[in-house]
Amino acid sequence: MSSCLLRFLAALLLCVVGATATDTVDWWESATLYHIYPRSFMDSNGDGIGDLNGITSRLAFFKKIGVTATWISPIYDSPMADMGYDVANFTKIYPVFGTMEDFDALLAKAHELDLKLVLDFVPNHSSDECEWFQKSIRREDGYDDWYVWDDGKIDPETGARSPPSNWRATFGGSAWTWVEERQQYYLHQFLAKQPDFNFTNPAVRERMFEVMKFWLDRGVDGFRMDATNFLVEKRFENGTYPDDPVGTGPGGGPMGGFSYTKDQWESTEIIYEWREFLDEYQRLNGGDTRAMIIEAYSNVTVLSNYISNGTHVGGQLPMNFNFVSLNENSDAETIETQANEWMDVIWVKHKMANWVANNHDNSRSPTRMGESKVDAMTMIIHALPGTSVTYYGEEIGMPDYAAACSGNPCNFRDPERTPMQWNGSINAGFSTGNSTWLPVNPNYPFLNVQVQRGVARSSLQIFKGMTALKKTAAFKAFKEEGGFSYSALSKQVFQVIRTAVGQEEYRVLANLGNQIEYFDGLTNKTMEYVLLNSYSPHRYGDKLDLSGRIYLMPYEAVVLHWSE
Ligand code: NOJ
């Protein structure tokens, strides 16, 4: 063989190997995942509540800002005691949100735009208004055991009845509620209106597969599985339930430590079953991976097992909630610690990471951490390897609106669920109605998408800049040796480096503090400013010699670029 041909073959091989390295990154591994809260995203019919057609009308926005996948909080028929996390009918659309035709149109349009669409799935519980629960109350048609029922304890002396255990519900009060008609208690780990399914019953497991299949057949790209760490509870062989140890409750409270209701191993096995089902579905029907996002506020050991235990595989993407508790005192070192907690276990074992700073259950980060840190956080979340998750409005830095209240009593999570701020017109462009289900934050005339579109260095521009960077060779090479590194350079300055070795490098420098910071000799490279927030005195295209002393202004956050 001629040396020329050999060189050609070697080059071809390199090309193939090179292509494999980045092409093995599946869509969910490095997505820009956007969380839509349907009630608050876009109202198409003026009733003051967001809906499916509203979402469809805004899909083009996702393309403009570089989003690649979305997940939508529940859209199913529900009495809305827990804003849709209390499902009455798992295969019917909540009429206020629209119809099944609207859903199909939304999905078709999303796919036309090459956007993935993941549905929230609420397997742990239903609404008490769900037909299955009503049948279970009446012990009808094999539904007897669909929920966790128990007689409770009878005091041998007084004959008084009390709940089966001292378990507390997440939202407060006993986790057991008495049903007169059935003469038994049922378990609910959230509201009393959210009875817990009995996942030891094969009929329940089977029905959940059927529900999943229903939505997969319509074409959804995966599910965000709600409250997966609550699926199975501890029950002794004699049918009794162990009490939570005294003193394990929130703040050392007398009870309610969830020792026997959360993180039971059997829940992990159910996730493995779901994964098998989803993989099999893909094998039979083709198409891209149907991904499973896992919602569980559990430690990394539990989450690691949700992904895989070495013999079984489970959810691809357990949400990393380490950043949702960052607050005004959190600094670059806190961020490094929180990032390490995830990376040391999950990255090391599974080469997987995702970063969530906001969702519908937690105060928004501009309120928790301070509005000056919005851009720094956007840069960090998108620069760290893996998938970035954005809660609607996060891309423009929407804070909580403390006065927002949707009921009597108010839902404690209302402040972070106010309508999306699209523009300066009535109701921030969210709705043309006379009122909205939650009030629009009065800051909307100057904090909205339209304003930020026209302003260089706005939070939205930073967001767009970062999602664009996620498509570069350096950002795509994150699973390769030397593909990334991060650290706190000082108490307040966080750095992330993304590298396509020998080709190019991006370096995020984010100052979370209100003081000027300086560093000497970070590297011998001269780099170019390619993304700058409004705190930066520099200009796009300016060069920075990092072998000398460099300065960062208070809250300055920048991205630097170097290429061979
Ligand atoms: C987690 C959801 O995010 C939250 O909103 C809901 O209240 C609980 N799970 C119960 O479904």
UniProtKB/TrEMBL annotation:
UniProt xrefs under Pfam families: Alpha-amylase (PF00128)
Glycosyl hydrolase family 13 catalytic domain sequence ranges: 35-417
Keywords: Signal
Keyword Secreted: no
SMART domains reported in the protein's UniProt record: Aamy
Residues annotated as signal peptide: 1-21
InterPro entries in alphabetical order: GH, GH13_cat_dom, O16G_dom_2
UniProt entry tagged with the keyword Transferase: no
Catalysed transformations (reactions): Hydrolysis of terminal, non-reducing (1->4)-linked alpha-D-glucose residues with release of alpha-D-glucose
EC number: 3.2.1.20
PANTHER family per UniProt: ALPHA-AMYLASE FAMILY MEMBER, MALTASE A2-RELATED
Name of the protein in its database record: alpha-glucosidase
Species this protein is from: Bactrocera dorsalis (Oriental fruit fly)
Gene (UniProt): LOC105228202
